[in-house]
Amino acid sequence: MNSATNQPVADNGRDAVKDPTVPIWLIVVLFLLVFWGAVYFDEHGGWFEPQVYSPYVSAEQLKDFQVAGGPDIMLQGQKIYEKTCITCHGPAALGQPGQFPPLAGSDWVNEKEPGRMIRLVLQGFSGPGLKVNGQPFNTSAAMVPWNSLSDDDLAAVISYVRGNKDWKNTAPAVTPEQVHAIRAKIAAVHPLSFSPTELEAINPAD
Amino acid sequence: MKYGPYVFLAAFFALALSWCGFVVTPQVQLGRAVQETNSVEKAELYPQERSGQARQGLEVYRANGCAYCHSQQVGQQGTLVNVVLKDAGKKTMDVAKVLNDEKLGTFSGPSVAAGLPKTLLQNVSMEQAVALQSLLKNAGATTELHLVPFGPDIERGWGKRRTVADDFITDATVMPGTQRVGPDLANVGMRLPDVKWQLMHLYAPGAVVKDSPMPRYQFLFEKRKIGARPSADALALPKEFAPGDGYEVVPKPEARALVEYLLSLRADTPLYEAPLTPPPAPKTNAPAK
């Protein structure tokens, strides 16, 4: 009995395919390719960070490259001071007698802890009874809030004012984290300007 | 059509996938980008809005298809670091010992402190630079790291750092281009700041760049009879490009606007996403050569 004659006649070329399943090596190669692609993406893709461009591969690496002398905090603070504060407080930070308080040598500025100063710059200042170095000031000219400035900018300008040796100020610098903490603390509870009595009640280290 | 729904679905998903890649992803990444002070000197706004004439010039650039032959994107291969000693501190012997141990030359206490600032290491990787910096810091010295981007485009002088999306943030139509039949123009305002050169180059590229393949944009200029006296704006053309005797060539407003736009192209400010250390500013007011 010849088995070949009993088989149905195969149609065009289909008998050429002996095993219709995908060979196992091809599946392995495909998985390896997908794995390699994923590793490559992880190492070079920057994970869709908008600020990461080649040749930098990740946000962390880009951070390491932010060293170009470091942003000069006093210079940055000076530029912000000259844009925002100088109108009232003046180029030598002497203010206007009886109207705008001085920053040079001011007891408010030179407090060791920056809590009060950060609050008054962030949220502004109005109300009667302000005294700077014992001098009373007319508070009809209130200070506007500067919470539109970023934490970095506020920390720079406050550090610039507090540490300006030309103005005989010697208070320590302020970090953006301190500004951020106080901004978060007062955002919900204190939407309006501070009054001098309110500020004096606040613990400057808080 | 037996496979109609499958063909439709296959086409739909292929287009949807590319739409997600080309439209949605960039929108998610950069769509909310606003102009902010993200330059390294934070109090400076970068990029500045182009002047009105330069914005008209952008339209001229667009209308004349400049972007078909000129790109506005500088590439960058990597960033190298120079370590610069700013201050040797009080323990100069310790600093000299660190430098000698690192085989950076033979130093003694006084010779370390002389001739500051000086470059100790040039064109090294960030890891090497940071390692040396921390060693020197322990010895009481102050160092600075200077970042030097490199790559073929930067070696050609086409830019100081790579181009990023922020460079285009004030432009309503961006002209990044893809072809480089001509040179990249991302920093042409820094490279070729001469208005007269630019105008002459637009009128007759061959007059200033030998064998330039750029077409002449003479329709941006007016050839006219010299009146009572020659115009101060007339181009000083070499003889073979000059109009006939008694005629002069003056730029039309389009040409002026285009040149204003070209001069406004300079993307060399250090940014957070493309850091570099700019060379120190010249001490005089003379323009950079």
How far from one another are the termini of chain B? 70 Å
The radius of gyration of chain A is 34 Å
The percentage helix of chain B is: 25-40%
Biggest beta sheet summary of chain B: 3 strands, antiparallel
Tell me which oligomeric state these chains represent.
heterodimer
Compute the number of helices of chain A. 8
CATH fold label of the largest domain in chain A: Cytochrome Bc1 Complex, Chain D, domain 2
Q: Low-confidence spans of chain B: pLDDT under 50, at least 5 residues?
A: 281-289
Specify Rg of chain B, calculated over alpha carbons: 26 Å
* Share in β-strands of chain B: 5-15%
Strand order in the largest sheet of chain B: 2-1-3
* Beta-strand fraction estimate of chain A: under 5%
Order of helices and strands of chain B: HHEHHEHEHHHHEEH
Which shape of chain B, going by the Cα principal axes?
A: flat
Name given to the CATH architecture of the largest domain in chain A = Orthogonal Bundle
Report the CATH C-level class of the largest domain in chain B: Mainly Alpha
Spatial ordering of strands, largest sheet of chain A: 1-2
Task: Output mean pLDDT of chain A.
Answer: 80
Structure in a nutshell:
The complex is a heterodimer of chains A (206) and B (289). Chain A has 206 residues and is mainly α. Chain A has helices at 3-6, 24-44, 59-64, 73-89, 115-123, 151-162, 176-189, 196-201; strands at 131-132, 135-136.
Summarize the structure in words.
The complex is a heterodimer of chains A (206) and B (289). In chain A, helix 4 (73-89) crosses helix 6 and helix 6 (151-162) crosses helix 7 (176-189). Chain A has a two-stranded antiparallel sheet. The termini of chain A are far apart. Chain A has 206 residues and is mainly alpha-helical. Chain A has helices at residues 3-6, 24-44, 59-64, 73-89, 115-123, 151-162, 176-189, 196-201; strands at 131-132, 135-136. Chain B has 2 domains: 52-72 and 156-264, Cytochrome Bc1 Complex, Chain D, domain 2, CATH 1.10.760; 78-150, 2-Layer Sandwich (Ribosomal Protein L30, Chain: A). Chain B is flat. In chain B, the strands form 2 sheets. Chain B has a 3-stranded antiparallel sheet with strand order 2-1-3. Chain B has a two-stranded antiparallel ribbon with strand order 4-5. Chain B has 10 helices and 5 strands; from the N terminus they run ααβααβαβααααββα. Residues 281-289 of chain B have low confidence and may be disordered. The longest helix of chain B has 27 residues, at 4-30. Chain B has 289 residues and is of the alpha+beta class. The chains are: A mainly alpha (206), B alpha+beta (289).
